[in-house]
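Residues determine shape. We examine one folded chain.
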Amino acid sequence: MDSFAPALPRLGGSALQNSPVIGGAAFGRLQMKPSPPLRILQASAEPIANLGGVGKIVQWVSGELVKHHRVSLAAPDACSSEIPAVLAERLENRITIPAAKWDAASRRQFVQQIKSGNYDLVHFHGGTFSFDSHLPWRSPLHRLGRQPWILSNHYVQSLTAGLFPAKYPRAGKLLKSALAWTSKAYLLARSRQEVFDSDENRGLIGKWFPWAKSKMRTIYHSGLEGSPPGPALAPEVVTIANLGHIAWRKGQPDLLTAFSLVRPKFPRLKLVLAGPLVDEDCTQWMRNEIRRLNLGGAVLLPGGLNDKAAFWPAVDIYVQPSRFEGAPIALMEALWMGKPAIGTRVSGIPEIIEDEMSGLLVESGRPEAMAAAIERLIFEFDTRRRFSEHGPRRIQAQGMTRAQMSRNYAELYDAVLSR
């Protein structure tokens, strides 16, 4: 794993002392009725011990629910020792489910565990076709009967993304697409609600299933608490950074290319791409490109960060280069921390960054436009300062805080269970 230390040229004690805890234990209380406590199953398609994304959101929601209700967890790593002890010890039951494809045996077992659990509500977390929901004969979602359930859909690319390879026969594409649409339509009819991370993603599903729009709503997921720390800008830009899983869809290859275009003009510039190296193909491409461009001393891949206290104070410009997204939590954190930010015009990113007010927006997949935006912020200190001051206000105005997420889910659960 690459060393992170060289990318922290200005990190001092005062910066760490003034840095707020992000995603800590405190959480706006979910005051939900009826009483006595509800029995709720939180089911995650992804491991919840992941350092970000869906797993972190399930931790946040579950961590608050256990204070007032009887909560169980279903996830690929539900029985893992890596789940935070403060949560694990308060769960009523933990169920391990498949991380990828479901077979008949695992589907039957999970459905039986749901039915025998007598849950008031099952809350699924994943993507549009997680839990193999595009295949009615394989997915557990098609066997839930009258069990009340909702889905938080954390990423929407297209209705056919991942269903077949590009060179798949045309007839096969049409057949699989029709099956996926029919399956999704059935599940929308059976579920109580589908929650999205962004208005943009909700709109995409709404276009494909306009009759089900009344069952769709947006809840921004966030771990931000307390008050933002306030602007802390250095006069010189040294570190460009991104935080997230290293993967093609996250766009770090585009950011690396953009950085290679800017750095010859600014030899002291560093690029930190922090996050789990989950996509081996993308990671290998990045390492090869770093070697080819002779950027070994300027680009760091430190892997996942368990403690971000040392990360944010060192960031001068934050870039979210995603090709598709939900509403990236790391970008919310960047604005909250007063970091001048650049993002792509995809998914929920324009709902976080107000162009020319709290950051800059560029087209996805265009490294030259990203490089121009980076260069502009390097030169324009006053623009960086304006973005730094407006960023936290933007997050608060959009309700992208942990307390607001808590209130939104409390209202949703009340509405679903009283229906």
Observations:
- The CA atoms of residues 121 and 147 lie 7 Å apart.
- The chain has a mean pLDDT of 88.
